[in-house]
Amino acid sequence: MKTIKALSLLVCLTGVSTLVVAQDNRALENGHEYMVALNFPNNLHVIDMATDQIYKSCDLPDSYGPGTAQVSPDGKIAYILNNHYGDLYGVDMDSCETVFHARLAINPNESARAMFSIAVSHDGKEIYSVANPSTLYSDHMKALPPRLQVYAADGGLQAKPTRTFEVPRQISILMAADDGSLYMAGVTGIFKTDVHTGKYTTAVATRDWKRPGYGAPDILYVWPHQTDMNDFTLLYTAPKFKDGKQDLQTADYVYGYISIDLKTGKSTVKDFAPFTEIYFTGLRSPQHPGQIWGVLNKLARYDIKSQKLLGRADLDHTYYCVAFNKSGSKLYLGGSLDDVAIFDPETLKPLGKIKLPGGDMSDSTLQAFVRQTQL
Question: If 83 and its partner were Cys, which of 50, 62, 99, 283 is the partner (CB 3.0–4.6 Å)?
Answer without folding.
Answer: 62
